[in-house]
Amino acid sequence: MFTVTYAQLNGWLTAFLWPFTRVLALIAVAPIVGHRSVPMRVKIGLGAFITLIVAPTLGAMPQTTVFSAEGVWILVNQFMIGIALGFVMQMVFAVVTAAGDLMGLGMGLGFASFFDPQANSSTPALSSWLNMMAMLAFLAFDGHLQMIAALMQTFTSVPISANVLSANGYRLLANWGATVFNAGLLLSLPVVVALLITNLSLGILNRAAPQIGIFQIGFAITMLVGMLLIMAMTPNLIPYFARLIDGGLEQMGRVAAALKPVP
């Protein structure tokens, strides 16, 4: 007769549940796989599948029960690690969205928006287009696979334990948020500067020849200039997205190493 002891059952639960929590937390926040259009069953199934593959390679788990106070604290630690790592990659796409907002505002396309189910709000059309391009580049460069591989490496740099995570990791994560403004402004800078020069030129022309009616043609001119510049930038967008994705993957490793508890 097949019998299972409490110690064996607890060992199986700890070997699966704690890694599963870290993996599922990343999947819930990460780009593409964490999108609201992906069914919850698919997310849970993907997390369970990845955990079943990686769990046998993690070695011995802490000697504690799953439902004890220490076991629940370990569960919280794994959840926080997964959320932090997924947020790092989500910030890469926030860079693209911020750049689209800046360019669309200068072109006068701030009113043209679509409903984004991911953000649960209206998003400017230009931001939606750039975000779609970034997602396609993310999939083309196997960014989703590299992201999962980076997550698997964190089990080595940050082993499963009940120790309190280092605050350096959260500080590094907060500093990573500054890239939204830096990289987003850098991406939109050619269009923003060109539109600024265009608006200044139209203002000078309006003062020199008021009879032209700048307010009637200004919107069309700024939109035309913006569209032409975006067309000129398009060949360089994919390499820029590739650098952003590589930077996000490297930042995942740095954040994980900084979260490692100090002995």
From TrEMBL:
Where, by residue number, does the polypeptide cross the bilayer? 12-32, 44-61, 67-85, 92-115, 121-141, 185-205, 212-233
The answer to whether keyword Cell membrane applies is yes
A Pfam match: Bac_export_1
Is Oxidoreductase one of the keywords? no
Q: List the subcellular locations.
A: Cell membrane; Bacterial flagellum basal body
Q: Which UniProt keywords apply?
A: Bacterial flagellum, Cell membrane, Cell projection, Cilium, Flagellum, Membrane, Transmembrane, Transmembrane helix
Membrane topology per the record?
Answer: Multi-pass membrane protein
Primary residence? membrane
Kindly give the PANTHER family that the UniProt entry links to this protein: FLAGELLAR BIOSYNTHETIC PROTEIN FLIR
Q: Sum up the protein's function in the record's words.
A: Role in flagellar biosynthesis.
What family is this protein classified in? Belongs to the FliR/MopE/SpaR family.
Protein name as it appears in the record: Flagellar biosynthetic protein FliR
Q: Which organism is it from?
A: Paraburkholderia tropica
